[in-house]
Amino acid sequence: METLNREIFDHKNKENLVLKTLPGLSDDVIKIISEDKKEPEWMKQRRLEALKIFKKLKMPDWGPSLKNLDLNKIIFYTKPNLKQNAKSWDEVPEDVKKTFERLGIPQAEREYLAGVGSQYDSINAYHKLKEEWEKKGVIFEDFDEAVKKYPELVQKYYMNKCVSPNLHKFAALHAAVTSSGTFIYIPKGVKVSMPLQAYFRMNAERGGQFEHTLIVVDDGAEVSYIEGCSSPSYTSESLHAGCVEIFVGKNARARYISVENWSKKTYNLNTKRAIVDENGIVEWINCNTGSCVTMLYPTSVLIGKNAKSEYIGIAFAGKDQHQDTGHKSYLLAEDTSSNVISKSISKDGGITAYRGLIKIGKNAKNAKSSVQCDALLADEISKSDTIPYMNVQGENADTSHEATVGKISKEKIFYLMSKGLSKEEASKMIVSGFIEPVTKVLPIEYAVEFNKLIEMEMEGAVG
Amino acid sequence: MEITYNLLKEDPYITKSREDSLKLFNKTEFNKIHGLGISITKEFNFPKIKTNSKIEVSGNGFEVIEPNIEIIKSFYDEKDKLDLFHKANWNGIALIKLKNNSNVLIKPSEINYISIDAEGKSNIIFYSDKQSEYKSYIIKLNISNNSEVNFAYLNKNSNNSYTRIYSDVKGKLNLFFSDLDNGLSISKINSKLLDDGAELKQINILYGDKDNQIYNNSIVLHENKNTRSNLIVRGVITDESKAIIKGLVHIKKNAIKSKGFQKEDIILLGDKAEADPIPELHIDTNDVECKHGATVGRIDKKKLFYLTSRGISEKDAKKLIVSGFFDSLLNENSFVSNEIINNIRCKYEY
User: Which of B233, B283, B295 to mutate to test the interface with A (most CBs of A within 10 A)?
Assistant: First the structure.
């Protein structure tokens, strides 16, 4: 892979939009979105209902400050001038193609991927699923298309059992202005051996990105799904309020990987939740490097006996960045278990916070949960917070939480330098070692990209 | 010696402030305390408090200072309804100065302000065993430079208890806290490490049985460089009792080369016992070492099996395991008086 530089992500293409709503939210904006998407009536009603809930709910009064986020200035729907859901790469417009090519999407597709869906602003640009999986009944579809093509499936799972618009203000906002995203359905017993992949990119200034990812893995099925996100640099604030819902059936397994590298003016207020049934396994791999404020707490609700969740998270916060992330586990049945590993790096005054939650219910006999957080502070002005909440009912479970905070130790650097490495190389090596538990589970091309990204962000960190 | 406080001879300023506080108290709502899953549902019973009361102070190497209005005013810092009740109803104040090598036992009355200035090596036992519906203590510890002070706290025989301990640490403080209240117990312990090299070792022992509700919140602020803190909370929560246990270690920006350590271990016994530990860490600079951990668990089945297979009844085996859980902490802190240790043991041995 070529050396990576920030320009790839910061690069903005000329806005070329056919539709752009007025800033702010109103019934009219919602109706325009719904009509433009030619949605069924039920979807429109759900949007309007969610808007009512949004207006009722309060902004979160804890965590990072959201005072610079002016929702009245955000443009909630933009539609670039490009053909929706191009089935082959040739149909994708040139400038979009260029962006994706810079990001290595087509190569990755050729070599590794079963299908690619890329969301550019609010419209899905490119979509493909290898025929063999299509034959087995696997659905990998743009979310807007899925609403029309598979209304029963979508209606059954979309924003009711897993993430309800009542959950919090930005879940309600998402439900009101959902646009595009991914729908994946893996039928009973089908094991998709190659990872499915999507890429989301926000291009318009003061834009919003509200993709919905709905993954249903039926009993005994398996899938691995990778999401990448980015946006160019603008001087005004933009908003990402996506939502991921994952249903893991009995004996099923879902692995969800996301690498979020939004521009440093993006508020990333995201909701991710999985419901896991008997013997099911959900794995979260969550990487956050961009955005000015991230509030993201992927949640596993373990409702079936012996259900498991594994979470690996990494967050990087540089200047003016506040990464507030963590994992929530609800262990509600016998023999359920949850395992969390969280790594964070702060630099140039950046703030990282681990805010997690473990709830062990009365019926969760023999439930087990463990949380391990490590924070690395690159300089004396950076900050790190660890705020784990736990609630345990009854004497039938074991839970533990552990956290360490430290710096890049001078002794380690000295040792590596004595072996002939430069100071820069030594610190890069220490940082790579620190994030290794995360990078070793990422697919190779993502691991390389992510390592490069962290290296780039860490440049000049040790002086 | 006995420090008697007589309301009848009170300064008019204080009497007025009591009346004002009472008015405000009646208007103020009790701030409901919530953990993640637990809310404190019990309510305080605010009884009529005796006007004449005695604080007993015994030992050697101490001096009791006559309080004046300014000192009393400096205690007035109300944050919520419980502070207002304290301000309206307090019935004792003791200002104690300790010199090197002093040993002091304080037996308080129901609602007291206590201030201790300590120098050199000192041992302080705060032991509250009077029968009372309601107890409320606001305690200020001032630990000077180059000193090493042990402070042990125990309260029992009350149905409602409220404790605030503020310590300004410039030297070294070993703080041992245990509240064996029978009903609702709220405690807030705030420590500041102020001087270069200041040290705090704090142990909180919590035991909840029957339908006890416990809220225990410890805050440690590292304000200067080379400061050390070690916060250990151990609790056994049984029957239908509930506990919210909060801890915060905050290393401020200029507190470089500091070390902060925090550990919360909770054992739950019984299907209705419930615990919410929330151990927080806030780190504002990089040249520090910080670690924290929390566990909530049950009694190890293997240990229980081992003991019962040796002919010990399950009930006794559980007691043995619980006493092992607390004993290491009780034994390694020799300044904690036998009286306090026996009281804690009584809780789980009978």
Answer: B283
Q: How far does the CA of residue A350 sit from the closest CA of chain B (Å)? A: 10
Residue B243's nearest CA partner among B266, B262, B263 is B266
What value of ipTM does the predicted structure carry? Answer: 0.82
Cα–Cα distance measured from residue A123 to residue A11, given in angstroms and rounded to the nearest whole number? 19
Chain A residue numbers with beta carbons less than 8 Å from the beta carbon of B286 are: 377-380, 382, 406-407
Residue A304 lies in a domain: no
**Angle subtended at Cα A155 by Cα A153 and Cα A160, rounded to the nearest 5 degrees:** 120
> Which residue of B270, B272, B286 is in closest CB contact with A407?
B286
Radius of gyration of the CA atoms of chain A, in A: 21
pLDDT tens digits, one per residue of B294-335: 999 888 888 888 888 988 998 888 888 888 889 888 888 888
Chain A residues with CB under 8 Å of B266 CB are 392
Strands A115-120 and A123-129: antiparallel
Structure tokens at A35: 């009509």
Show which of A262, A296, A330 is a domain's final residue.
A296
- What is the Cα–Cα distance from A269 to B115, expressed in whole angstroms? 48
Q: Which residues of A touch B287 (CB under 8 A)?
A: 380, 407
Q: B200-242: per-residue pLDDT in tens?
A: 999 999 999 889 999 999 999 999 999 999 999 999 999 999 9
Size of the A and B interface in Cβ pairs below 8 Å: 126
Judge if pTM exceeds 0.95.
no
Is the confidence at residue A108, as pLDDT, over 50?
A: no
Does a structural domain hold residue A177?
Answer: yes
CB contact at 8 A, A117 and A182: yes
Indicate if the pLDDT at residue A111 is higher than 50: no
Residue A357 touches partner B, C-beta closer than 8 Å: yes
In a domain, A311, yes or no: no
Q: Does B331 touch chain A (CB under 8 A)?
A: no
> Within a domain: residue A459?
yes
Which of residues A296, A323, A340 is at a domain's end? Answer: A296
Closest CB to B37 among A383, A393, A399: A393
Of the candidates A411, A180, A451, which has an alpha carbon nearest to the alpha carbon of residue B287?
A: A411
Total number of domains constituting chain A: 2
Q: What is the pLDDT of residue A4?
A: 41
Instruction: Give which of A111, A88, A87, A142 is closest to A446, Cα–Cα.
Output: A111
Task: Judge: B274–A385 Cβ closer than 8 Å, yes or no.
Answer: no
Contact in structure between A162 and A300 (CB atoms under 8 Å): no
pLDDT digit string, tens, across residues A58-88: 998 888 989 888 888 888 887 765 554 455 5
> Do B255 and B225 form a contact (C-beta atoms < 8 A)?
yes
Tell whether B34 is within 8 A of chain A (Cβ).
Answer: no
Distances (CA, A) of B9 to A98, B36, B55: 87, 47, 17
Q: What is the tens place of the pLDDT at every residue in A117-126?
A: 555 554 554 4
List the domain range (segments joined by +) for residue A73. Answer: 7-296
Residues B179, B286: Cα–Cα separation, whole Å:
36
Q: Give chain A positions within 8 Å (CB) of B282.
A: 383-385
Task: Write down the domain spans for chain B.
Answer: 2-300
